[in-house]
Amino acid sequence: MKSTDFLPKDSRNQELLSAISKDEIINRLLEDISRYKNLFQSVIHDLKYPIKSILELSALLEKDISKAEQQELLGVFRDWCNDATEKLNDLLTHEKDENLKFEPVSVNTLLKSCQSGIRGIAHAKQIQTCFTFLKKDKFIRIHRPAIKKALDNILSNAVKFSQAGGLIDVKAEIQENKLIISIADSGIGIPQDQQCCIFKKFNKKARLGTTGEQPTGLGLYLAKQSVLAHYGRLWFKSAENEGSVFYMELSLDRLTLESKD
Question: Which domain holds residue 170?
Answer without folding.
Answer: 32-259
